[in-house]
Design goal:
It holds the Pfam family NAD_binding_8. It comes from Neoarthrinium moseri. One of its GO terms (molecular function) is oxidoreductase activity. The chain is α/β, with parallel strands linked by helices. It has two domains: about 250 residues, FAD/NAD(P)-binding domain; about 220 residues, FAD/NAD(P)-binding domain (3-Layer(bba) Sandwich). It is about 30% helix and about 15% strand. The protein has 16 helices and 22 strands. The strands form six sheets. Strands 3-2-1-7-20 form a five-stranded parallel beta sheet, covered by helices on one side. A five-stranded mixed beta sheet has the order 6-5-4-16-17. β5 and β6 form a beta hairpin. α1 crosses α11 and α8 runs parallel beside α15. The protein is globular and about 90 Å long. The protein starts with 14 loop residues before the first strand and ends with a helix.
Length: about 600
């Protein structure tokens, strides 16, 4: 009797997947699954009415990306018609919406579904996920074999922990949950915060408000503005990008090569770090040469400890406008009409905008229960994540853009792609082997975190500043960004370390072998002599050789290692007089 197809080696079983979140990483996973897998179901729950994640929620005045637009796309899906070098939030959100439509992913996404609980059943080897349909109020319950948390960490507004804020009778808004119907014309506005959101908000609202005060607790490093001539793409340039994809490809690659050449700027006291610090300090002093408190706007910590803010000189110039006042202090309390700062001054306002960032604790908003443990409690004590994708002790579940993702070290979407590929390799193994559960070992996470902590002592994120990676509390935890460059991360995550995981099987673990028939023998179009070749084109067997082949070793002119001419002393002098724009911005942008 002939064998059945199900008896072939690596026969695929049906696998059920739930992904929580339809931001950039969630839709990337959906695309990867749709492209490479059959015999699966995917349900994506998204709490918002639309896709895009942080780019759906962030709509404050002046909101834009701080990465060059053409490099804030998936590596395989460029957008030739971006209107400007740094795209606004609406345009970025539109890119993700078009991506979902283009690749036919809409039917997989359930909008306005807020996940309220996820529970692991050890006996059945499956997750039960509860979600509330925000449109109907009904609770829906779904079951899956693999659960992916693609909730990111830039989606939970962090309101100031200051007494009396609830007593303020005027308009309160947060940059991460901004109400676009607020009319600021002729208003007295108080902005709390001096980070990237505040830097975009103030110049956008200054021309229309009666007065604007901004409370800056600690300064940030600023990059010079892109000149007016280069900040937007002309219709001719856009037409060229559309009709000549090789031009756009060259721009994207050059941007990427530049950003990937400067990781040592994030190393304490490195040559690039010292050059960058001198360069930006000189440039800031020049732009604020008439400002009374110039030193208060120059950080003492390393460049990169907090997000370096591109096009920040527009903000610095705005500080000198007649209707703008800067308070170098911090909010200590609020009352019905304003705010008292720690220097004892009182500031009235019609509108308070809290540009105070996000809760980056990584503690999930919903209970995640397995083996009697709740991830909310576990991560409130200590984050035991693994390489941006694993959760210690919780089976068959992964994170996208989780703890120890390279948020500050390169383009985030490239990291999301690599993580989606990594998770898909586990889904592939689960689908083609009799696996019951896959769990990252707690002892492995402990060793991983110890290694991260050791390396972090040499990197700028452990300097004396509040940043998203320490949840805005100096020394509160090991910084949760990746302890290396983006290229370092891609190499580290490219090949799963299966021994770091505990695999439990249903029945005989070798049942995947089937009854002796290969997959090739079950496809009538395959070449049954595929292994006969004229020359050896197989992958290299050594890891270094494999990685260098992927990195296209030998295809580029030799470069000087760990140096960047654009950050040299000559450039520092040029920048001080405001003549440099896009080149400097390509250097130092923190890629959150």
């Amino acid at each position: 009797m002939d064998p059945a197809e199900k008896d072939a080696i690596h026969n695929e079983r049906f696998v059920r997947i739930i992904c929580i979140g339809a931001g950039a990483s969630g839709i990337c996973l959906a695309y990867k699954l749709n492209r490479s897998f059959t015999k699966f179901s995917l349900t994506v729950y998204e709490k918002n009415p639309g896709i895009g994640g942080t780019w759906y929620e962030n709509r404050y005045p002046g909101c834009a990306c701080d990465v060059p637009s053409h490099n804030y796309t998936f590596s395989f899906d460029p957008k030739p018609d971006f209107s400007s070098v740094y795209a606004g939030s609406n345009e970025i959100r539109s890119y993700f919406e078009d991506f979902v439509s283009k690749h036919g992913l809409s039917h997989l996404i359930h909008m306005s579904h807020l996940v309220t609980r996820a529970t692991w059943d050890e006996e059945k080897g499956e997750w039960t996920v509860e979600a509330k349909n925000l449109a109907t109020g009904q609770t829906v319950e779904s079951v899956c074999d693999i659960l992916v948390h693609a909730t990111g960490y830039l989606n939970k507004p962090a309101w100031p922990h200051v007494s009396g804020l609830e007593n303020f009778k005027g308009i309160k808004a947060h940059s991460a949950d901004y109400d676009e119907t607020i009319d600021l014309r002729g208003r007295d506005v108080l902005i709390i915060g001096g980070g990237s959101s505040a830097v975009q908000i103030l110049p956008a609202i200054q021309p229309i408000v009666r007065s604007a005060k901004i409370i800056i607790r600690t300064p940030s490093w600023m990059l010079p503005d892109i000149s007016t001539e280069t900040s937007t793409f002309t219709s001719h340039q856009i037409e060229e990008f559309v009709n000549k994809p090789e031009l756009l490809m060259a721009l994207r690659q050059e941007n990427e090569r530049t950003m990937n050449s400067i990781f040592t700027v994030y190393m304490k006291n490195s040559v690039l770090q010292n050059q960058a610090k001198a360069l930006l300090k000189s440039a800031t002093k020049h732009i604020l040469r008439e400002y009374d408190s110039v030193d208060a706007l120059i950080p003492e910590f390393s460049v990169g400890c907090k997000r370096v803010i591109p096009s920040g000189f527009r903000f610095l110039r705005t500080l000198k406008e007649a209707n703008v006042n800067v308070i170098h202090s911090s909010a200590s309390s609020f009352n019905s009409s304003g705010c008292i700062t720690e220097d004892g001054q009182y500031h009235e306002a019609d509108v308070i905008i809290c540009a105070t960032g996000f809760d980056t604790s990584y503690v999930p908003r919903y209970p995640v229960i397995a083996s009697g443990l709740n991830l909310q409690s576990e991560w409130s004590r200590s984050i035991m994540g693994y390489m941006g994708v694993g959760i210690s002790g919780f089976p068959n579940t992964f994170t996208l853009l989780g703890p120890y993702t390279p948020y500050s070290n390169g383009p985030t979407l490239i990291a999301a792609e690599a993580q989606a590929d990594y998770i898909c390799s586990f889904i592939d193994r689960y689908q083609t082997e009799p696996i019951h559960s896959m769990t990252i070992r707690p002892s492995v996470c402990k060793e991983f975190t110890e290694q991260v902590a050791t390396v972090m002592e040499k990197l700028v994120w452990t300097d004396n500043c509040r940043n998203t990676h320490n949840n805005s509390r100096v020394g509160s935890r090991v910084p949760t960004t990746w302890p290396g460059s983006t290229l370092h991360y891609l190499e580290a995550i490219r090949e799963p370390r299966w021994n770091d995981w505990d695999f439990q099987y249903r029945g005989n673990r070798f049942a995947w072998m089937g009854n002796g028939v290969s997959q090739a023998e079950w496809d009538p179009t395959t070449d049954l002599a595929y292994y006969i070749r004229q020359h050896d084109d197989s992958p290299h067997l050594g890891r270094k050789a494999r990685n260098l082949a992927i990195a296209k070793s030998g295809t580029r002119p030799a470069r000087e290692l760990h140096r960047q001419a654009k950050l040299g002393p000559v450039k520092a002098e040029t920048m001080a007089y405001g003549e440099v724009g896009i080149e400097a911005n390509e250097m130092l942008i923190d890629q959150d």
